[in-house]
Amino acid sequence: MGTQRVLRALGRALGTVGLALTGAYLLALRPWHRRWGATDAEATGTLPGDDFVGDADVVSTRAITIAASARAVWPWVVQLGQGRGGFYSYERLENLFGLQIHNADHILSEHQHLGVGDEIRLGPPGSNAPSFRVALIDPGRTLVLSAPGWETGSSEATWTFALHEVSPSATRLIVRFRGHSPSLGSRVVNRLVVEPVQFAMERKMLKGIRKRAERARASATEGRRR
């Protein structure tokens, strides 16, 4: 009996701690990571493709400043994808799940042109990894990737990349994800599991794009000086 009371007390204590941690995450950490790096105007402003998901309950807007022109940043964005330039994120972690991602450290000329309807895979063909289609593209400015249904505003998810050049040598790269959870269970999983993982991977991606674009710009500048 004594052991059972101890176990029940331990269970209640763990439950209380779990609720406290969940509450802290939902009230403090989640609002922060959903708009990491973004200004108030960027987080609340409208971006192309916002209307492709009719009832989005998973929404994040993240941004980073890159010391390069939009023209210099765009090639790294347009070549995103499995079997293309990768995602500039945690490659080893992605490949533990068999996604076969290889992050490019140079611009791939063969992956610089996209059209509406083109597929952007998150994993290799034949895998269970989802894929997106190009729903909207404005070269040098905007790329909107979407799950099926964007034509009728019934897409389950969109991933938007917007480049805002603030000066000839500085660009804001804004990335917005909008998704719809089809059930209460999927909504809970999305908020407590998927969103934190997505944040970690997406922040690494933004930093990876910045690193590559700024390094390429520095190399080009050094080359002109010689």
Automatic annotation (TrEMBL):
Please provide the record's keywords in A-Z order. Answer: Membrane, Transmembrane, Transmembrane helix
Transmembrane segments annotated in the record for this chain: 6-28
Name of the protein in question? SRPBCC family protein
**Which superkingdom, per the lineage?**
Archaea
| UniProt key word Transmembrane | yes
Protein's organism: Haloferax marinum
